[in-house]
């Protein structure tokens, strides 16, 4: 004997708003012309240099360079992720996330950990007669300090942005 089935569907306003607002991706060309945007691109390019210069050596024989590699690769990936978020203006589609606080925490932690990694990198570079990794490690140390200064600059701009949001 056939049974009658009743199916009821409901739609929330959140789902309707999400599907309507995510139909097109925006692209913010002007972001790369701002100082934080330029610093972010510099962090990506020079951060890539830091970890590729170390990765091309026998860094695994020295635990200190493992730490530098972890910090460099970790923050390189996250910086690329944040660049995509800012370039596509995804932060405007997710207003529940306190983006100014997230940016401040990200840049502040990147500055502190990159500073530690740069110091560890510089102090681990040794000039030994049979060590052919010296030039790569010395160059990675230099670029690690440059990337650290870029993260310091972005931390400053993130703080200014965060401070202006908390005063409103």
Describe this structure in words.
The chain has helices spanning 13-21, 35-55, 63-87, 99-124, 134-167. The chain has 168 residues and is mostly helical. Among the domains are: 27-93; 97-124. Helix 2 (35-55) runs antiparallel to helix 3 (63-87), helix 2 packs antiparallel against helix 5 (134-167) and helix 4 packs antiparallel against helix 5 (134-167). The protein starts with 12 loop residues before the first helix and ends with a helix. 24% of the residues are buried. Residues 9-22 have low confidence and may be disordered.
Write a brief caption for the model.
This is CKLF8 protein. By secondary structure, the chain is an all-alpha fold.
């Amino acid at each position: 004997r056939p049974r009658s089935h009743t199916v009821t569907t409901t739609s929330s306003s959140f789902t309707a708003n999400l599907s309507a607002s995510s139909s097109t991706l925006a692209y913010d060309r002007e972001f790369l012309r701002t100082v934080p945007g330029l610093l972010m691109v510099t962090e990506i390019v020079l951060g890539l240099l830091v970890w590729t210069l170390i990765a091309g050596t026998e860094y695994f024989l020295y635990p200190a360079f493992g730490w530098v590699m972890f910090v460099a690769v970790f923050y390189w990936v996250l910086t690329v992720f944040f660049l995509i978020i800012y370039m596509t203006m995804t932060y405007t589609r997710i207003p529940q996330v306190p983006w100014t606080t997230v940016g401040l925490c990200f840049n502040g932690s990147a500055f502190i950990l990159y500073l530690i990694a740069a110091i560890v990198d510089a102090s681990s570079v040794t000039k030994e007669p049979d060590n052919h990794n010296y030039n790569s490690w010395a160059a990675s140390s230099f670029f690690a300090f440059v990337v650290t200064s870029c993260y310091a600059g972005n931390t400053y701009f993130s703080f200014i942005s965060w401070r202006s949001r908390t005063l409103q």
